[in-house]
Automatic annotation (TrEMBL), chains A, B:
Taxonomy, superkingdom: Eukaryota
Keyword Oxidoreductase: yes
Keyword Plastid listed: no
PANTHER family attached to this UniProt entry: DIOXYGENASE, PUTATIVE (AFU_ORTHOLOGUE AFUA_2G02910)-RELATED, INTRADIOL RING-CLEAVAGE DIOXYGENASES DOMAIN-CONTAINING PROTEIN-RELATED
InterPro entries named among the record's database cross-references: 1_2-HQD/HQD (IPR039390), Catechol_dOase_N (IPR007535), Intradiol_dOase_C (IPR000627), Intradiol_dOase_core (IPR015889), Intradiol_RC_Dioxygenase (IPR050770)
Entry GO MF terms: catechol 1,2-dioxygenase activity; ferric iron binding
Identification of the protein by name: Cathecol 1,2-dioxygenase
GO biological process terms, semicolon-separated: catechol-containing compound metabolic process
Length: 329, 329
């Protein structure tokens, strides 16, 4: 690039006090106003962090090495940066911001790093877990809109660990998916499948994120839960999970995902259910009525909350593709 | 870990508004008060960043993928996280905080990702670059303390690119170091060596950091410079560089390293110098008088500036191993 084309301020003699405004100045050439705003806030926060902590060169190098190790351990079946985001509460926060829920709808929670795109499509009634030592559990749910109308044809991803607390992808030599499936709600908005009772498990803690948790004296456990993801044109994507009430880790989830409204008590299948769904009478039963928000409801709420947050920060902003950018004339 | 041993608040129903205080609460079990403070500030800034930008799930995933790519491209000879830190001005900031300089001493600047630990020890007068197409340059310097006394026995690391703007480690199949050496100052605090005239070069921009610079419409160039690092017991580590005045990128360095006091004009060797240092008369000559700060001067200044910064932030802090931590009774 021809340096004479660079219309930036003279970057020289940068100090603790003037480096931030100068980085902003050179980044202000960015033609994408959303990216420019993201970078402006990011650089401000990173610099303030260093100034407020008087970050030492040794600590900086420790952070560089930590982030490098986080990247290095990522693979097709392990996403350590998502794990890092999860354990610092960022994942829960971003989901809450991006998927606001009216009180009548099902709350969201963290996606986690174990969703895959290779789960098999299963008819209602399908067996999603083939772990013989798991306790069988019939899962019987409905999915409706906020007015109480059943929604048919919703694509539902479900995934859970085996009875040892491990997802299929955590086993070397995995040849096919297990403990996961893709279902579709029927005309009554009903979907059901045969799974196993979820168990608590530690998030992968043999890597850099596990070391960080150890230094913080935090345990790596998640309470027993089953993941659900709902997709249908016209409805806001819902990433959520159901948690077993009374789990020992119910109030200390390593990734901050538990919500009161997502806690369930397991029931047992009565004679009629046993016959209808072909399970043992008295076997474990998990039921839940999910409520999806329409895209337009979610968009309206998201934008209203975004502008409210911007106002409370005293920033003059406008929305661009639903996301705030500075409102400069 | 036995969950009954976890003395944390009940983490449930976490929202945009209460997630931060709850993450702080669970991290507050950390026995290392400096790490606890670093995490507290880090989590606050990361969360505020997400709240202030209303970070979307898509943007979050883009960031996760970006950081993963930054980690993946790191190798024994490439440190993309340092590069990222450099281009957002963090490296310059951390160096300024950790190595404060009294006005009588030589300023520091960014280390960059190309220092290695395998440079050969060279006697004064040694040839550090074997690039036949480089323009030979005699480098003749002194190193003194802030009272003007020469310092002997200082270990000096120097490194520069070849005439094509590439460091040795950027070539595949590198078998031995070149364009770098470790020297020692003599009894008069003098050190000299035979190098080549530095040239401008782009930082590695074929990776994720290069892509970011392109999105920001920033060029990846650094002005011509030669790196120097000084180490001697009792003196604050000095990481610095000399820049050629008048370089086309003098005021738009991609990593914000240029300082007025570190700009040099190349001279030419006179007849006596040519004879004494065994170079061609009229050949390029770079001279500089470096001034090191003693450990105790640096420590005093660092701690004074840290406490001043904490006071201006209104934080009640104390120093622990020279770094601020909250002063809680």
């Amino acid at each position: 690039m021809d340096p004479s084309q660079v219309s930036v301020p003279l970057l020289k003699d940068l100090t603790i006090d003037n480096i931030t405004e100068n980085v902003h100045a050179i980044n202000s050439q960015c033609p994408d106003s959303r990216l420019k705003y993201l970078l402006e806030r990011l650089v401000s926060h990173v610099h303030d962090f260093a100034r407020e902590t008087r970050l030492s060169t040794n600590e900086w190098m420790t952070a560089i090495n930590f982030l490098t190790a986080v990247g290095k351990i990522c693979s097709d079946v392990r996403q350590e940066f998502i794990l890092l985001s999860d354990v610092i509460g960022l994942s829960l926060l971003v989901d809450s911001i991006d998927h606001p829920k009216p009180s009548s709808s099902t709350e969201g929670t963290v996606l986690g790093p174990f969703h895959t795109h290779d789960a098999e499509t299963t008819d209602n009634g399908g067996v999603i877990s083939h772990d013989p030592t798991g306790t069988p559990c019939l899962v019987l749910c409905t999915v409706k809109d906020t007015s109480g109308n059943p929604i048919s044809g919703v694509k539902i991803d479900v995934w859970e660990t085996d009875s040892k607390g491990k997802y299929d992808v955590q086993y070397e030599g995995r040849t096919q998916p297990d403990g996961r499936a893709v279902l579709e709600s029927d005309n009554e908005g009903v979907f059901w499948f045969k799974a196993i009772v979820p168990v608590p498990y530690p998030i992968p803690h043999d890597g850099p994120v596990g070391k960080l948790l150890m230094l913080l004296k935090r345990h790596p456990y998640r309470p027993s839960h089953m993941h659900f993801m709902f997709e249908k044109e016209g409805f806001d994507h819902l990433i959520t999970a159901l948690y077993l009430r009374g789990d020992p880790y119910e109030t200390s989830d390593a990734v901050f995902g538990v919500k009161e409204t997502l806690l369930v008590d397991l029931g047992s299948a009565d004679a009629e259910q046993a016959r209808k769904y072909e399970v043992e009478e008295g076997g474990k039963l998990m039921t839940y009525d999910f409520v999806l928000v329409s895209d337009s409801e979610a968009k309206e709420l998201r934008e209203k909350e975004a502008m409210k947050a911007m106002e409370s920060l005293g920033r003059k902003m406008k929305l661009y593709q639903g996301l705030p950018i500075p409102d400069v004339d």
